[in-house]
Design brief:
2 domains; mainly alpha; binds zinc ion
Length: 124
């Protein structure tokens, strides 16, 4: 047999005979678990940044963060100070992992969500 063998460009993992080079569920599934895929580095960077932010903000779960945001908005503090904290809270909410949040959403799914308010958010 001279069948073409499709392999992962990052780790050399061989896909089953006949796997199409694009658009296959086998490919997209493997990309999520390949340890050498660049996405793993991005994910671990996000996890590290998130852990640092959790340490600064002092809250991790979605419920805690929502309460903290509501509280923050009512504080008699300068808007610029509140915006800094609320942006951090939004960043944490946007990067919730399924383990932390009840809602199943990943880093990159949530990064594409409308809560890009991270940078654009302003108190009015
Ligand atoms: Zn791979």
């Amino acid at each position: 047999m001279y069948g073409r063998i499709l392999t992962c460009v990052y780790c050399g993992h061989e896909y089953p005979q006949g796997t199409p080079a694009a658009g296959s569920e086998v490919l997209t599934k493997y990309i999520k678990v390949c340890e050498r895929h660049p996405m793993r580095k991005a994910e671990s960077d996000i996890a590290m940044l998130r852990a640092a932010l959790v340490g600064l903000i002092g809250a991790d779960t979605e419920a805690e963060l929502r309460v903290m945001e509501a509280t923050m908005r009512m504080l008699p503090a300068p808007d610029a100070d509140k915006a800094v904290s609320i942006n951090a809270i939004h960043a944490l909410l946007a990067t919730m992992t399924p383990n932390v949040s009840a809602q199943p959403r990943g880093f990159f799914a949530s990064a594409a969500a409308p809560c890009c308010a991270l940078i654009r958010w302003h108190l009015s």
